[in-house]
Amino acid sequence: MDTVFDFAGYAIYAVMFFIALWGAFCIVMVVSRVRQKQFTSEEQQSAFLEAIEEPLSKGDYDAANELCDGDRRATCQLSQMAIANRKLGYNRVKQLLVDRFQRDVLQDLEYRLSWVYTVIKAAPMIGLLGTVLGMMKAFAKLAVGGASVDVSKLALDIQFALITTALGLAIAIPLVLGTAYINVQIKKMEDLVGYGLNQFLEIFKEANIRFPNK
């Protein structure tokens, strides 16, 4: 019976180690994705919009497209998409950009964060399972050994029970703080991209009216 409990204990440690790594990896990926999709400042975004306004005001869509080409930031990618689909008309292009931002950026981040939330919920539960197994092992020794049970071994079983609970909380708490930080960053990114997109659409609308056949 001790062998079964020992194996279960090692398995719980291994599972907690891997889910901690997975949670940390997902946090890093989401932070990286948010930073990849936004300008570092509103001033930098305004500089891009000023740069793209010049060719658009002349109907030079190719030059405007070159300014966006290869840039992975959301405002640039959405601007490039608007230019590529300009013949659909302003209203349809606007709806296309909003849908694409929601689907390709925000929903992608939400999907990645869902894994972090899963780890946050799972880690304490796995820790609690370890606690239950540790206490079961301790009580099993008491039932078999009675008064002659080795107190030091009993203490080790109880220690294991407490360690797994502590590990579960130690994994979940930093991830809770991490997701709170990420949600703030996502909101900032959404506001910045939304502001930039509105500015671009005003520029695009004027160009689309002046040069409808280009």
Automatic annotation (TrEMBL):
Domain MotA/TolQ/ExbB proton channel: 105-190
UniProt cross-references to Pfam families, sorted A to Z: MotA_ExbB
InterPro entries: ExbB/TolQ_transport, MotA_ExbB_proton_chnl
Lineage top rank: taxon: Bacteria
Alphabetical UniProt keywords: Cell membrane, Membrane, Protein transport, Transmembrane, Transmembrane helix, Transport
Entry membrane topology: Multi-pass membrane protein
Any one of the GO CC terms: plasma membrane
Keyword Cell wall biogenesis/degradation: no
Subcellular location: Cell membrane; Membrane
Membrane-spanning residues: 12-31, 115-140, 160-182
Gene Ontology terms: biological process: protein import
Family of the protein in this entry: Belongs to the exbB/tolQ family.
PANTHER family: PROTEIN TOLQ, TOLQ-RELATED
Name by which UniProt lists this protein: Colicin uptake protein TolQ
Organism per entry: Mariniblastus fucicola
Top-level taxonomy: Bacteria, Pseudomonadati, Planctomycetota, Planctomycetia, Pirellulales
